[in-house]
Structure formats: C-alpha cells, structure tokens
C-alpha cells in the first residue's frame, strides 16, 4: 500500500468525523448560516498567507533541484490562482482584502498554522511534506463525499466554492502532494509520519469545529 | 515605563484571569484533586524539552556574543536544575521519566509549544525573547499573589512545588528575562511585541484551563 | 539618498574591481577562453538551485502578505524562466542538466551560497533582502558598463548571455529588489545592512575571480 | 567499522595535509612567528561565538530529550570553560575581549562558519552533528600527532595552548561527539555524511592555511 494510503487509513476515524461535521454537511447542503461561512472565509486569509510561507520553508529543505522546482510550483499556485480565487470570494461576500487582513486569528487558526510552521522549520522535510497533505487531500475527499448534495444546494456561493475542490486542477495538486509523500518518505520511519498526519488531521477537524462555533479567545 | 511593565499592564485582564483560575487557586490552597496535578505534571515534560529547544533557537538568532552567552546560560539552567527538579517531582508522584515521555501531549500543549517554536524560528529575536517571558513571569506573580495561602496548604507536594517560584534563584531568572526584553526591544515596534505577549498570555491561561479539565483531543 | 544607492556607493571600490575583472571584460569583449565560460556555467547550477531555496527562506520571514506574494513571484521567476534559460544555455554548450548537477561546487561557490543561506535562516529579513541584491544588481550594472563592447563581440553565446541582463524584464527584477531594500529597511540599522552588502559584493568579486582561475579545492 | 572511523578514513588525505601544515607544525615546534598566532587567536572569537550558535541550532533539531540535554551540555561547555579559556589566552597576549570582537572575520572564517550554520539550519541533524566533528576531532588528533614536539617547544603560550587538546576533558568531548555521529547517523545515507565531513575537513585545512598567510579580503 502507498504510504499516503496507509496514513489515510490510520486517520480514517478522524476523517470520518470531518465528513460528518455539521459545518461541512450544512455547507454542501446549503443550509449553513451565512454568518458562519463569512467567519470561516475571513479567517482563511491568515491560513493562506502562512501556507505560502510554509511551502517556502519546505522548499528550502528539499534535497534535490527537482523537488525544489516542484515545490516552487506549488508556492506559485498558492500565491496566484489560490489567492486570486480567495479575493474574488471575499468580493462576492462584500468584503475587501483589508477586512480579512485585519481579522484576529482565532486560537485553532494560530495553533494549526504554528504547528505547520514549527514542523517545516525544525523537522526533516519528509515530516513537513506529510504535514501539508491532510488539508489539501481532505478538502478533495470532502467534496467527493458530499458532491451529490450540491445539486440540491440553493446557495450559489457555496456551490461555486465547493466546485473548486472537484476540479481537475485541484485533483492534480492533491495527487502531486500525495506523490511527494509516497516518493520522498519511502525510507523514513513510518511512526513519525503517522504522528504528524494524525495531529494535522485532528487540527483539521478542530478547525471546522471552531469556525462552526465561531470561536474566539476565551480571555 | 519599562517595556516589560507596559506589556504586563496591557495583558493585565488576562493575567487576572490566570490568578483566579481554579487550577491555580486550588493548587495554592491545597484543595486541587491530585489527579489533576498528576495530569499537569506529566504534560509538563513535553513543554520543558521544547522550552530548551526554544531557547536554543533564540540563542542562534542573538545579535551579540554577550546575549549568546546569557541565553546559553538559561539553556543550561533549564537542561540541568529545572530538569532535575522535574524528575524529582515525578519520583515523588511515583512516576518514572519514561511515564512522562510516553504521554501524548494534549492540544493546548502542542499549540502553545508550536507557537513558541514557530516564533523563534521565523521572527526577529526581539519577538521571541518577548514570547518566553509570560510563562516564567506569570509563575512568579502567581506565587506572589497566592503565597499567603501556602501556610494553610496541607499538601506538601504542592507547597514544595510552589516554593520554587518564590525562591531568589527563580526571581533572578525572571528579572534576567525581563531585562532581556527591556534592553533588546527598545527600538522594536511595540505593537508587535504586544501582540506576541497577549497571545502567549492567552495560551498560558488556556493551558491552566486545559489541565484543570484534563483535556484530550476531541477526535 | 535611497538606501540601495548608499549601499552601492559604499561598495563602489569593490564593484569597480568587479567591472574591471578579466573574466567580465573578456566575456563582454568575446576573448574569454571558452573553457572558462564552460566552467562558470556548470558551476552556476548549484548557485541557481540555492538561490531559489534562499528566496524561499526570505519569503517565510516576510512581515506582510504583500511581501510574501512579491517574493513568491521572484521564486517563480527563478524556478521557471531563469531555470529554463539556464538549461538552454547548457544545451548550446553541449551539456545536459545532469552534467551540471554532478559538478562539484568549488570553494567560493559553497562559501557564497552558505553565507546567503545562513543569513536568510538566522537574520532578520531586512538583512537577507539586502544580501541578495548585489548579485542581481551588479550583473545589470556590468552589462550597462560593458554594453558597447558587445557590438564587437564575435562570440554569439556570450552576446546572447549578456543581452539577458540588458533586457527590460531583468531591469524590472533588479528595480523590484532595490525597492524591497529601500522600502523594508528604512528603519533598520544601516551599519548592519552595509556589512552584509559589502561582504556579498566581495563574494561576487571572488566568484568571478574563482571561475577565471577555474578554482578547485586545495585539498 | 564505526561511522566516524569510516569518515575519518575517507578524509585521511585531507587530515594528513592538516597535520603537515606549516602553521600546525611550527606551532607545536614553537617556531611559529608570534604575529601569526596572534592573528589566529583574534580570529577565533568569531568562530567560537558561532560555534555556540551552531550547537544551539542542532539542539533545536534533536529528536529526543536525551539528545537535547546532551547538546545543551556542549553548549554550556562552549559558553563557559571554552570561552573563559579563550579570554585568558587573549589576556596573556595583551588583548582585551573587545580587540577580538572588533576584528573583521577573514574570508575562510566567514565561509566556514556560514557552511556550518547553513547546514544546521537547513539539513537533518545527522548532517549537522557530522559537520561539527572534524574541528574538535582533528584538534585532538593534531595534538596526539605532534605531542612529542612539545617537550622541545620553548614557547610557553604555545605549549599551554596545545596541552588543552591532550587533556582528558577534551578527549571526552571528542568521544562524545564521535558517539553522537556513530549513534544517530546509523540509518542515514552514508554518502551525504561523507560529503559533509569532507567539505568541513577541507575548510579546516583552508582555515589553517589562511591564518598562516594572515589572509584578508582581496577587495
């Protein structure tokens, strides 16, 4: 079995909870209250900027020129098409980019991004490349899992948002990241990859839960 | 006003909540259920190891040889007397160091340490030096705030644990760290230091809250 | 005066030596022995891969999303058009990319790239952004300084190579990097920027000198 | 064969050149012109401060708490006894610590320390732990190789300087570092360790050569 497949299986119980989380289900059904979606979108800015930083750190740790170029490609994708798509979405919701910039990141947002950045800064790049997979991959799996709901979904913004994760481009990106893990981590101790994959999958779940509850700092 | 004093004041509402947190109050009064203290102590291992790592990163970013040596001194303190004290405490509670090593770090533990490590890895050392202050300083202030309770405290282990934070050695360490901030951050934009100090103070509060609730991963 | 202008002036005596270095003069005149140019081109692979890594590290230290995106743009440029141009040049010289990959980097190559990577890894990004300027900028200034020689230059490969650094695209990149320094380093101690700029300018000179002498490790 | 032994053997031709370098031979014989030794000692300050930084970075990448503590111990040794010994030596030569601080590091000094810092910042800690071995170990082997010369050496300062590297304490440190490599690098690709060990051994040779020639920047 591919390493990524094994990781996916070992995190199966967490991913199942993600698929079933009310934020996800209601988003694909179209019943998610708009204010919760707005909250989610505004928070995403922080995540996106730090994702670019994170891939940059991974790029600097890569072993070979090929990998350096491959990851540089992902950085470019994040900084251009992903960022542009994000700005368009903000506009549709009546926001400007400044609104997102000025939002205070909530606890799980800060925690999750810090975990990724600390991993890429301090750990071998096999662990870092594994740490970025659950986010991209689970978004794609969520979309597959709930795609049938989209035909009944009356919220155009939700439908458009979700369709990105069903696109061929997005699937290619996910496959590329899976292949990174399968290829580069072959000789790396599996237990360490598993710990990372599980922790990040947990953060993914907690992120959905936090945006559903529109979480803020307790003090 | 000293920068550290200004930061302390700006985080005053959070520190007040820390002083009043039931874990803290019950610990100093001696009424904290032992199992919660045990939970706290076992989790501390992860925090301690990563604190040494964190100071190491800060040391590598220091501007001058004097600072390098000062921080190397703190690393030594953490890795020797602090670690030895920790192992003694484990023994008193009937644990071995392996018990602490094998404990799964709970969410806030992972989040807080990741925030510190990401800060020291990626941000100028003025921000990092600021990020380590709230933990050390608030422990000292908690001890001052609740010291009167200790005379009534029937739990010897709690009393002994607390007395460390009232010792001259500990106060010297706190003063040293405050001086770092006051000295090195003079020309650094205050707003960035404040953001860091507030975030870390919040993590301190959430850490106390999590150990009180003996928090585990939701999935 | 712009910070970059002041830095350029303070390194004037070094840049003058660069302009006058036989490798540079003979390259623009067309009299440089081909084997020296081949040596230079094969060594450049290592420099180029590490330049992408280096910009990636700087990207991860950037303060704002705008800067993150700007530097992500430079990473993309290096990893695509610059890399493609490099591969084409290799082909013209009868090499494959593998030939360049298998070349042992000579001392100044290792030293120079290590200095850049250590700076971006450990120093505030103002210093790192300053450290990458001399390479790009001096190539542009060299081209301006010697452009008249190109009309007499009989070596087509040399003329084509040099013309890149006279192109509008290249000038735009240089101006962008100068603007980074002028904008982001405004409040940063000038002395530190100057030390970095001088050291890197010296490495630039030593690099030209090393390729002219086709330097190898002394042991 | 132990990994460290294999590395030592593969770098044998370089180490032989180090043992035979005039700086080394004349230092142990007592015939080295004092001004060259003074040059060497003043330059060493920069190396020493960066060695502490370098071990700090390695500490932050360590896998287990045991290793974290072991390396914290080396940091302490470098920052205290090694630094104190250095200051005493400066005093004997009529210098103050400020004299060493104000010295401009020469090219190989900057290059060598940058290589170590870039390695510890960006590469897995197995490579970093390997990169620090040649300096400590070769000093010990040099001392063994030339110890007989010391009885005829009339220069007290040289004799005292050299005797440090014959002491039990120093031998223990070298053995500890060798054990790090033997233990932690067991499953790591040998070729990468070899490249690092060879490069650093070359820098060691070039360092001796540069101080013998009292090298300065060419521009």
What does this structure look like?
The structure is a homotetramer of 219-residue chains. Chain A is mainly α. The first copy, chain A, has one domain: Heme oxygenase-like (Heme Oxygenase, Chain A), CATH 1.20.910. The first copy, chain A, contains 12 helices and no strands. Chain A is globular and about 45 Å long. The mean pLDDT of chain A is 97. Chains in contact: A-B, A-C, A-D, B-C, B-D, C-D.
Short description:
The first copy, chain A, is mostly helical and 219 residues long.
CATH class of chain A: Mainly Alpha
How would you name the CATH homologous superfamily of chain A?
Heme oxygenase-like
Multimeric state of these chains? homotetramer
Order of helices and strands of chain A: HHHHHHHHHHHH
Helix content of chain A: over 70%
Query: Looking at CATH, which topology of chain A would you report?
Result: Heme Oxygenase, Chain A
Q: Biggest protein-protein interface?
A: A-B, 25 and 25 residues
Average pLDDT reading of chain A: 97
Secondary-structure content class of chain A:
mainly alpha
**What's the number of domains of chain A?**
1
The major β-sheet of chain A equals:
none
Tell me the Rg of chain A in angstroms: 17 Å
* Distance separating the two termini of chain A: 46 Å
SSE order and pairing:
4 copies of one chain form a homotetramer.
Chain A: H1 3-10, H2 12-19, H3 22-29, H4 34-61, H5 65-92, H6 97-101, H7 107-122, H8 125-131, H9 133-146, H10 156-163, H11 168-184, H12 190-212
Helix pairs in contact in A: 1-12, 2-12, 4-5, 4-7, 7-12, 8-12, 9-11
């Amino acid at each position: 079995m591919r390493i990524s497949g094994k990781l996916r299986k070992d995190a199966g119980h967490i991913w199942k909870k993600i698929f079933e989380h009310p934020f996800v289900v209601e988003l694909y059904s179209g019943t998610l209250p708009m204010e919760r979606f707005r909250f989610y979108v505004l928070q995403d800015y922080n995540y996106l900027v730090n994702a670019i930083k994170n891939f940059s750190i991974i790029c600097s740790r890569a072993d070979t020129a090929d990998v350096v170029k491959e990851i540089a490609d992902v950085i470019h994708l994040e900084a251009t098409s992903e960022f542009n798509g994000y700005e368009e979405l903000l506009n549709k919701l009546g926001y400007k980019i400044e609104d997102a910039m000025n939002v205070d990141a909530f606890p799980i947002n800060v925690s999750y991004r810090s975990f990724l950045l600390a991993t890429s800064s301090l750990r071998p790049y096999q662990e870092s490349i594994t740490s970025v997979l659950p986010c991209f991959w689970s978004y794609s799996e969520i979309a597959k899992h709930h795609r049938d709901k989209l035909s009944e979904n009356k919220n155009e913004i939700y439908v458009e948002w979700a369709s990105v994760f069903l696109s061929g481009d997005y699937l290619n990106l996910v496959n590329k990241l899976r292949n990174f893990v399968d290829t580069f981590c072959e000789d790396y101790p599996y237990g360490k990859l598993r710990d990372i994959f599980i922790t990040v999958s947990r953060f993914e779940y907690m992120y959905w839960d936090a945006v559903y509850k529109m979480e803020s700092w307790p003090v």
